[in-house]
Structures are given as C-alpha cells and as structure tokens.
UniProtKB/TrEMBL annotation:
SMART domains: Lactamase_B
Taxonomy, superkingdom: Bacteria
KW Chloroplast (keyword) present: no
InterPro entries: Metallo-B-lactamas, RibonucZ/Hydroxyglut_hydro
Residues annotated as domain Metallo-beta-lactamase: 18-206
The species this protein was found in: Jeotgalibaca porci
Pfam families: Lactamase_B_2
Protein name: MBL fold metallo-hydrolase
Length: 241
C-alpha cells in the first residue's frame, strides 16, 4: 500500500502545510484518512478528489475535519454521479456533518474491526479531550500493517496496538520533558512506543507549527533505538508500505 502525507501540521495550517490528512492507496482503492485544512488541494496533486472511494475520520477536532465541507461540494458539484462513504464514530454531536447530498455517514463503534475496501481497520480509543480513535490498518493482500495514533496522550496500550507494525504514524506534538500530557505525546514517548513495539518505521506527525522540528526528531531517534525515524519536513511525502 502507498501512504501519501497530505498534511501533518498540528492544530492549524502553517508554513504552506495543511493539518492532518493522509491518502492511503491499495491497488485501485483510495482511502482518505482525516480531512484537515488544505486536504482537498493537496489531494488534487495526486488524483482527482472524486476518485476517492472512502473517507475515515478519527475525531471531530477542526484540524481533522476542516475540509470536510468542500470535499462534499466536490461530490455534489463536480459531475455528481456517486456517493462517498465517510466513516466516523458517533460519540459526538458532530457526526451529522458527514451526511450530505452525495456523501453518506457510516458509523463505526470502535469495538470491533471493520472492512473498508482492501483494508481491515481496528480501533483503539485514545486519550484526548474529545472521543478519538487510533487506527490499525492491515492491507489484506499483503498483511502489511500501518498504525496511526490519531491525536492522543501517551497510552501503554499503544505498544501492543502497534506491535510489529511496518509503519507507526505518531502524534508528536511535544518535546521530551512534557511526558504525561493528556492531549498529545512527546518525541520521547513515541520513540519509546516504536522501540517496545518493534515497529519498522516511525513517522512523526501532528508537528507543532511554531517550534524547531530537528530537536523533536533527535529526541525521538534517541528513544527509538534501531527504529528508522522519519520526520515530515516536507509535504507530499510518499511511503510504500
Ligand atoms: Zn484533536
Ligand atoms: Zn489534531
């Protein structure tokens, strides 16, 4: 499967980079994970947004759903001929925003895995001020595993959830020394999870717009041991998993 990072900024878009959005492709299936600010424009560089087959949303904070309305406009106004399923949980009043003329809200409970096209997706509820779910995504044909922490403070359960993942995409909003935060993780925490879970590659994401990222990268590498650590210093990063 191919992961394309469309936006990785935490909280708000900055430096020409949007907030959380990833395109995950397997064969001819195109899944959008979160719909952050600038997602539709960034997506357009890779494929016609109308080629999307499904969307999954981890939670309803603005930096993860900012482009939801304009994505719905794409399906409504641009040769309307198909309906886009948008998967999300129902533990928030905002689940109604997924329903429109040419998009359908599909609910997940977080309790059991679901199938979306070629992917099997399991969930872990995160530590965050609003209900939010981390995703374990398995490509059925290859068995390859991608884990996305979504937004979360540190949870010991991330180690088992991420076990032997090919790629761990982890919320790294804070520097070492701020461990135990209840909203986001630190470079040290995500590096430690990657090492204990024996993941092959750690990607730092949800980066703080206003700070020096090299320091975050260095701290994560130190905690991660032999794990390859990638920092999203440029947008449109593509990784084959
Ligand atoms: Zn959030
Ligand atoms: Zn966020």
């Amino acid at each position: 499967m191919k992961l394309t990072v469309l936006g990785f900024m935490g909280g708000y878009p900055a430096k020409g980079v949007g907030t959380t959005a990833y395109l995950l492709e397997s064969e001819a299936f195109h899944l959008l994970i979160d719909v952050g600010s600038n997602a539709v424009l960034a997506l357009e560089k890779h494929l016609d947004p109308k080629q999307l087959d499904a969307v999954i949303v981890t939670h309803y904070h603005p930096d993860h759903i900012a482009d939801m309305g304009v994505l719905q406009h794409v399906f409504q106004l641009k040769d309307p001929d198909k309906t886009l399923p948008i998967y999300g949980h129902v533990e928030s009043d905002l689940h109604g925003l997924r329903e429109s003329a040419y998009t359908t809200a599909v609910d997940y409970t977080g309790n059991e895995p679901i199938m979306i096209g070629p992917f099997r997706i399991a969930f872990l509820k995160t530590l965050h001020p609003v209900p939010c779910y981390a995703l374990e995504i398995i490509e059925i044909t290859t068995g390859k595993k991608l884990v996305f922490t979504a937004d979360s403070g540190y949870l010991a359960d991330f180690v088992s959830f991420s076990k032997d993942a090919d790629v761990l995409l982890a919320d790294t909003n804070f520097f070492q020394g701020q461990e135990g935060h209840k909203v986001h993780m630190t470079s040290y925490e995500v590096g430690s999870i990657a090492k204990e879970a024996n993941v092959k590659k750690l990607i730092l994401t949800h980066l703080p717009p206003s700070v020096e990222w090299e320091k975050l990268l260095g701290e994560a590498k130190e905690a991660a041991g032999d794990v390859v650590v990638v920092q999203l210093a440029e947008k449109d990063l593509q990784i084959i998993i």
